[in-house]
Design goal:
The protein has 115 residues and is mostly helical. The protein contains five helices and two strands; from the N terminus they run αααααββ.
Length: 115
């Protein structure tokens, strides 16, 4: 089956199905425990709102799962949605620039040849 046809899973679904439900935590309890409104958690769980850096930090503290995990889920979801929405148009309208080998800084600050 082509995974391009499947709807991406929202970060809220993962929060609910993989964390809240197995631990017996409902929306009101999570909201209370991480000091946000239940409407905010409900919107995240129902895919109406994304996971922000603020929420990611709160979830990190609560569940012990790094904030980066939650933000990566959200970024991946956003990219998949946007690719579906405008990916074909971008591929059609934007022509890639011809790459010229150049020196670029590595994460350590040293320069390396980019191939």
């Amino acid at each position: 089956m082509n995974d391009k046809l499947l709807d991406p899973v929202t970060p809220g679904e993962i929060l609910c199905d993989d964390f809240m439900k197995p631990m017996g935590i409902n929306i009101n309890q999570l909201a209370r425990d991480i000091a946000v409104t239940s409407d905010r958690i409900s919107d995240i769980v129902n895919g109406k709102q994304g996971i922000t850096a603020d929420i990611a930090l709160r979830l990190e503290r609560y569940f012990g799962v790094e904030a980066r995990f939650w933000l990566n889920l959200q970024s991946e979801y956003d990219l998949r949605i946007m690719k579906r929405k405008i990916g074909t148009d971008i591929e059609r309208r934007i022509i890639p620039i011809q790459r010229i080998p150049m020196e670029v800084p590595s994460p350590s600050g040293n320069f390396r040849r980019d191939l």
